[in-house]
Design goal:
This protein is mainly alpha-helical and about 260 residues long. It has one domain. It has 11 helices and 2 strands, in the order H-H-E-E-H-H-H-H-H-H-H-H-H. Strands 1-2 form a two-stranded antiparallel ribbon. It comes from Streptomyces albiflavescens.
Length: about 260
């Protein structure tokens, strides 16, 4: 483990990225726990206010991202400054993306259906950064054997082909399949081979004169959504908390 960590993380200068990812995920988890405790009226936590103004945690998140970002570009990949900047940036990114839906909609939608977008963005971001971090062709690794070069070349080729399949899946309207297909082999291939979702660029262009294909695509999308909508919602509720009922949600104050 120590040899792998040194060869694939420390030597190519990826330790700041590892620290940023760990800080990002940990900050999101802690923030969600605290916010859910505030929502339930438990614990010593409460909303932060200044002069009657509710300060959302996206505000300190932006400040930390600015400090960490400028600190990172002004330092090398090695040393305490780079590591500290990475941690600050990861914490800031966790706070900002936890309220991504608020920034997107410019409205307090944290505990609504629209607020689920924050959880989706955090999961996708962590997955993509993990892909970069765990890449088997890190820049900066020296003294590779011929076998290691061959193995890494094969991995690069596999990832490149898989990425092309992911682009096809994305054009078919299968966003989650495309994203996770870049990480997990064969998922993107399955998404690329299956029928496109109705309304996707692929369906609009290639199913325009194929009514049978359009009908099959609508039927498959209906069955897929009916099967997976429930488990997907329960997974998101487990991570980010269940949204409020729109009929009972208070007009002001999200927690």
């Amino acid at each position: 483990m120590g040899h792998w960590l040194y060869r694939n993380i420390i030597e190519p200068g990826k330790l700041p990225l590892l620290l940023a990812l760990a800080s990002f995920v940990l900050t999101f988890v802690i923030t969600r726990v605290i916010v859910r405790l505030i929502r339930a009226g438990k614990g010593p936590f409460g909303n932060v206010k200044a002069g009657g103004l509710h300060i959302h945690h996206v505000v300190p998140g932006v400040l930390l991202m600015v400090v960490g970002g400028f600190g990172a570009v002004s330092s090398s990949r090695y040393g305490f400054g780079a590591y500290l900047s990475a941690v600050l940036f990861g914490i800031g990114a966790g706070l900002v993306l936890d309220e991504f839906a608020l920034v997107l909609h410019l409205d307090d939608v944290y505990w609504t259906e629209a607020g689920r977008q924050s959880v989706e963005v955090v999961v996708v971001t962590a997955a993509l950064v993990g892909l970069v971090l765990g890449g088997f062709a890190p820049f900066g690794v020296n003294d590779l054997t011929d076998q290691e070069l061959q193995d890494r070349g094969g991995v690069i080729l596999t990832v490149a082909v898989n990425f092309l399949f992911a682009l096809v899946a994305l054009s078919k309207g299968k966003t989650r399949t495309a994203v996770f297909g870049v990480i997990v082999p064969f998922i993107a291939l399955i998404g690329a081979l299956r029928l496109a979702r109705p309304g996707s660029p692929w369906a609009k262009r290639l199913y325009r004169r194929r009514p049978h294909a359009r009908a099959r695509a609508r039927l498959r999308a209906y069955r897929h959504d009916r099967r997976w909508a429930g488990p997907s919602r329960r997974f998101q509720d487990w991570i980010g908390g269940k949204p409020d009922d729109e009929l009972t949600r208070p007009v002001t104050g999200r927690r």
